[in-house]
Amino acid sequence: MDRNSQKREIEKLFKENYSRLYYYALNMIRDPENAKDMVSDAFHYVWEHYDGKVDPSLSVIALLHVRVKNSCIDYIRHQDVLKRYEEYILNDATRMNENDYYSEREERMAKVMDSIEKLPPQTKNVFKMCFLDGKKYKEVSAEMSISVNTIKTHIMKALRLLRDEFDNEDEFL
Questions:
Q1: Topology of domain 118-172, per CATH?
Q2: CA–CA separation, 66 vs 61, rounded Å?
Q3: Cα dihedral: 96, 98, 99, 101 (round 10)
Q4: Which residues of the chain have pLDDT under 50?
């Protein structure tokens, strides 16, 4: 068969089967651009191998269907691998971010606790009882035998000293 008659036959096959093969691929992969590429590649394969290298027991239309189907399956498998890799990377990044968050938080808490320990003894006790133990000002006032206003004064003093200490650190602003 000469090249011109081969070309006319392939063009006829293309016109009669392209849409059907395209929608077949599109139905499988849901990606219009890749579906077009797969069908075009199948026709290109037939064009390249039409001179008798194609298995004569298969019809050319069946060969086109098989080529498109296999391309779609390969595409789906590849997308699945990409999706699993993306999930792995996201999970790994999330774990790393969580670990970073907790280590940073622990570091900050250690700095805060060190700063609390540096407060004057009475102020430190009032601050710990109110903020760390969660006691109300009245409860602390009764336990320490000092007025509620004195408790408030110690709290304001503790907060001012802590604020001054962390004023220069970006992470505590």
A1: Arc Repressor Mutant, subunit A (1.10.10)
A2: 9
A3: 120
A4: 171-173
